[in-house]
Specification:
The chain is an alpha+beta fold and 96 residues long. 21% of the residues lie in helices and 19% in strands. It has a two-stranded antiparallel sheet. Strands 3-4 form a two-stranded antiparallel ribbon.
Length: 96
């Protein structure tokens, strides 16, 4: 269902029965990593969260780690406020 580079790839699958008795598959809740190493970063003018991830972590695909550390469901919402300070989990390695 998910590519091996997805943060959901290693999350367990589960099933439930719907109201009509059909079995429905879903992913269990993904637990958030708690890295011991972290820093903070401030969003710059016009910067998106993937750009901040590239600037701070060296990989724009790691934007979701910043979302996790800041308990954000919608990545676009994180960079709306200019000058906002974010927690950036530097100790969490990209999982491939």
């Amino acid at each position: 269902m998910f590519d091996s580079s997805s943060r959901y790839d290693r999350v367990e699958d589960d099933t439930l029965l719907d109201g009509q008795g059909r079995e429905v598959s879903y992913k269990r809740i993904r637990t958030l990593p708690h890295g011991e190493e972290e820093t903070t970063a401030i969003v710059r003018t016009g910067e998106r969260i993937d750009q901040l991830a590239y600037r701070v972590l060296g990989d724009p695909r790691r934007f979701w780690q910043i979302c996790d550390a800041n308990r954000a469901m919608w990545p676009g919402d994180l960079a709306k406020e200019l000058g906002r300070r974010f927690i950036v989990p530097t100790g969490v390695e990209r999982q491939l």
